[in-house]
């Protein structure tokens, strides 16, 4: 059976949501990042990079949300979690890659730098993060779902970062109306609510 190594509320939630949306059987293994469980020898044997998520499959371990999301979508085609046509699939991957390489590091720097950023350094990091949210708000999010009319794994992935921003009071409704509406739309999905509940969280 598939086994997802995750940390509550962290980016692994994207993979968790995809598994719930797929309606598949899987186990959850919590890795407490605050306790440093990502650096135990047991977890490093699963993912030597020492980060979550990791998905253990019968063939081996898959890391990186972008890879896990497409694996879940392609192994559960009946769930319709990703486009199958090549151009549409590539557009989805462009969005997912941007989330992983651009939005995640930008907001992660603002929220999770240790020691926490202060003063002008924080203001600069925040400005850079807001520029990414502006890009998503004005260009990348097609609507009603991330890629357009069809829901996909990209929705749960985008939601992770809009949720982090809302939690930190950074997702201003006037500046980011479409991202706010998208976050509400995604959080209202039953599969997302199940994933949130399993992580001890609820819609915000
Ligand atoms: N690009 C990776 C990022 C993985 C990542 O940075 N995960 C964070 C949680 S959001 C983590 O486990 N951090 C633990 C650490 O850095 O010690 C992915 O999407 O899978």
Written account of the structure:
With 204 residues, the chain is of the alpha+beta class. It folds into 2 domains: 2-80 and 192-198, Glutaredoxin (3-Layer(aba) Sandwich); 86-189, Up-down Bundle (Glutathione S-transferase Yfyf (Class Pi), Chain A, domain 2). Helices cover 54% and strands 8% of the residues. It contains 8 helices and 4 strands. Strands 2-1-3-4 form a 4-stranded mixed β-sheet, covered by helices on one side. Helix 1 (13-22) crosses helix 6, helix 1 (13-22) packs across helix 8 and helix 4 (86-112) packs parallel to helix 6. The longest helix is centred in the middle third of the chain and has 27 residues, at 86-112. The chain is globular. Glutathione is lined by residues 7, 10-11, 33, 38, 50-53, 64-65, 100.
Radius of gyration: 16 Å
For the record, the CATH architecture of the largest domain stands as Up-down Bundle
User: What would CATH call the class of the largest domain?
Assistant: Mainly Alpha
Order of helices and strands: EHEHEEHHHHHH
Q: How many distinct beta strands?
A: 4
Ions, cofactors and other ligands present here are: glutathione
Q: What would you call the structural class? A: alpha+beta
Average pLDDT, rounded to a whole number, is 98
Low-confidence stretches: none
Number of domains: 2
CATH topology of the largest domain: Glutathione S-transferase Yfyf (Class Pi), Chain A, domain 2
Helix content: 40-55%
Domain GST C-terminal: 85-204
Protein name: Glutathione S-transferase N-terminal domain-containing protein
Organism: Brevundimonas pondensis
Pfam family, one: GST_N
